[in-house]
Design a protein that fits this description.
Layout: H1 7-36, H2 54-74, H3 81-92, H4 94-104, H5 110-121, H6 133-151, H7 155-171
Length: 178
Amino acid sequence: MAPQMSEEQLKKLSETVEHAEQREEQQTDEQSLSVDQGGWFPYPPSRPARLIPPIALAYIGDAVYEVAVRQYLLSKANMRPNHLHRSATGLVSAKAQSRILTGIEAELTEEERDIVRQGRNAKSGSIPKNADVLEYRHATALECLIGYLYSSGRHDRMIELIRKGIQHAEEHSHSPTK
């Protein structure tokens, strides 16, 4: 038979458990706060996503999209480095991103279309030598949208649009990565 605890011992134990639960709840709140504020890491944006310049949104959107494409390619059977690189290029080039944006435009909300318009009209300063101006502007618009959704913490929507975009690209590609 287990020894009985005194009232004082029970009170101390109860306070210790309650204190531990409060610490755990606070840590959970802090972790979810960083995600709620927009990122996968504990570095929230300096301002709300709506107030971040479109080129800055495209900057983070480009990186997030690149990671999404790489993860998608790693889910496929053929993981030879050369094949991965060629397949990634087929999904992240300005031409591919422009086609992807065209493929998902009908799915966008009014707010998302506004973000795309701002990204498309943003002045970036230079155009890559292997893309025409229109393709480059549409690619920037897609990256801006992804950056906006990422920075505003709307990761489910971002993932949904990236998935649909990759699916559209794969269906309309001459060299599938399937």
